[in-house]
Design brief:
Blueprint: E1 22-27, H1 31-47, E2 55-60, H2 66-74, H3 85-93, E3 125-133, H4 139-158, E4 162-169, H5 172-177, H6 191-209
Parallel strand pairs: 1-2, 1-3, 3-4
The chain binds ligand DLZ.
């Protein structure tokens, strides 16, 4: 089979993520695929020098919730790894006093969690990860359309790069292949790695652009 012409050309510049702070906001729908994408993104961020303690992970229920959560994270909402969207929004109302017993959850593999009372520091980039798989209704089309437009709007409105880590797959197999979990001989490519690289590159540009 021919390799084809599609795909991302490697950058000629080696970007250094060692001074960057990156948030990952991910949905929990279709978790098997999400987990692989998340691991791929984190591994790439770390391989480009981003320090573990500068990678902060926030979860939300589904992809539809991603734009608001990304916007809140950029605007300095308190982030707790593994917290629910409710925790995030609740945290906004009481930044320095997290709800007693609020769930801090388990940090994603290799990522550190933000502690409850840590002062919020700006993020240089945010990766929004979701996996949408087409069902039998129009639900998929509406969510894909609104989420992609809203994430674009957040990055243009805030000036903070938002990496579009949302798979819009017509089948489960398409989603699996794009997370490196393909069932055939070719497991596919984990797009989470590309998103990690895009975050470091765009964050570096953004720092220079001011
Ligand atoms: C409801 C729903 C459906 C059917 N499918 C997906 C999906 O494939 N991927 C995803 O991330 N989320 C899905 N959701 C949930 C919505 O994104 C959202 O969480 C709910 O509609 C609540 O707003």
């Amino acid at each position: 089979m021919s390799a084809g012409i599609k795909g991302l050309a490697p950058s000629e510049v080696q970007y250094d993520g060692s001074a960057l702070r990156v948030a990952i906001v991910h949905a929990r729908w279709n978790k098997t695929v999400i987990d692989a994408l998340l691991a791929g993104a984190i591994a790439k961020l770390k391989s480009l020098g981003v320090k573990e303690h500068n990678i902060v992970v926030q979860t939300v229920p589904g992809s539809f919730e991603l734009p608001l959560a990304v916007q809140k994270v950029i605007s300095g909402a308190q982030v707790q790894a593994g917290a629910t969207a409710t925790d995030l929004l609740g945290g906004l109302m009481s930044l320095s006093s997290p709800k007693p017993g609020s769930r801090t959850g388990t940090p994603a593999p290799g990522a550190s969690s933000a502690t409850a009372n840590m002062p919020s520091q700006p993020f240089d980039a945010v990766i929004a990860i979701g996996v949408l798989i087409k069902g039998s209704t129009m639900h998929f089309e509406y969510i894909c359309d609104s989420v992609s437009h809203a994430l674009m709007r957040v990055q243009l409105d805030t000036g903070v790069p938002v990496i579009f880590g949302v798979l819009t797959a017509l089948t489960e197999d398409q989603a699996l292949e794009r997370a490196g979990l393909g069932k055939g001989e070719n497991k596919g490519h984990n797009h989470g790695e590309d998103w990690g690289a895009a975050a470091v590159e765009m964050a570096s540009h953004s720092r220079r652009w001011g």
